[in-house]
UniProtKB/TrEMBL annotation:
Protein name: UMP-CMP kinase
Example GO biological process: nucleoside monophosphate metabolic process
Cofactor note: Binds 1 Mg(2+) ion per monomer.
Free-text comment on this protein's domains from its UniProt entry: Consists of three domains, a large central CORE domain and two small peripheral domains, NMPbind and LID, which undergo movements during catalysis. The LID domain closes over the site of phosphoryl transfer upon ATP binding. Assembling and dissambling the active center during each catalytic cycle provides an effective means to prevent ATP hydrolysis.
Subunit structure: Monomer.
Catalytic activity: UMP + ATP = UDP + ADP; CMP + ATP = CDP + ADP; dCMP + ATP = dCDP + ADP
InterPro entries: Adenylat/UMP-CMP_kin, Adenylat_kinase_CS, P-loop_NTPase, UMP_CMP_kinase
Length: 206
């Protein structure tokens, strides 16, 4: 049943409307392995990885007028206003020649989700959800030592709270639409990637 009007990417005034892109949201708690597995997906399946957190940190370091605000939000584990994050994601997609993107760590709340959809007209192909216990995530965050200002126990607790209260509902929203592919992310990296691969490999027609 094909629709007469192509309703994908029906953005209002977004330059992205003219660029047909495939987007997969990669979600899961802090330390669930999103970044690690995205690097693997890039290698195997040719997607471009856009980490919302990395884009915000780069924006912060670039000396932008929002730099101080972003730094404060990240330090408190709070969610940066949608407008800021969406602009960075839009620009990254427009500046890149690729047409398939992994958006990692976004949307983080319902408002992020609704605003992204409204502004870009993009709906994700599916949502890759890394499911992991808080205990395991905390262990990883405290052990990774990447010099991040938010990988201390105080901020980690705040990030977990925001994740439970604000981000899980986004995953539930997409789950209700049948779009979530859930991965047991507590296993070793190689095993997790085996499960990830299965999500990207089309099932052979029978
Ligand atoms: N952040 C945000 N909006 C986003 C993504 C990240 O506000 O869409 C902020 C938020 O303060 C978050 C921090 O950046 O706690 C780190 O996010 P990142 O995704 O890098 O970390 P992760 O939770 O994946 O370890
Ligand atoms: Mg990350």
């Amino acid at each position: 049943m094909g629709s007469v009007v192509d309703s994908s990417n029906k953005a209002n005034g977004s330059a992205l409307a003219n660029k047909k892109v495939t987007v997969i949201f990669v979600l899961g708690g802090p330390g669930s392995g999103k970044g690690t597995q995205c690097a693997n997906i890039v290698q195997h399946f040719g997607y471009t990885h856009l980490s919302a957190g990395d884009l915000l940190r780069a924006e912060m370091k670039s000396g932008s007028e929002n730099g101080e605000m972003i730094q404060n939000m990240i330090k408190e584990g709070k969610i940066v206003p949608s407008e800021v994050t969406i602009k960075l994601l839009e620009k990254a997609m427009l500046d890149n020649g690729n047409d398939k993107f992994l958006i990692d760590g976004f949307p983080r709340n319902e408002e992020n989700r609704a605003a992204f959809e409204a502004v870009t007209g993009i709906e994700p192909e599916f949502v890759l959800f890394f499911d992991c216990s808080e205990e395991e995530m905390q262990k990883r965050l405290l052990g990774r030592n990447q010099g991040r200002e938010d990988d201390n126990i105080e901020t980690i607790k705040k990030r977990f709270k925001v994740y439970m209260e604000s981000s899980l509902p986004v995953i539930e929203y997409y789950n209700a639409k049948g779009k979530v592919r859930k991965i047991d992310a507590a296993k070793p990296v190689e095993e997790v990637f085996e499960a990830v691969k299965a999500c990207f490999t089309p099932v052979a027609a029978s």
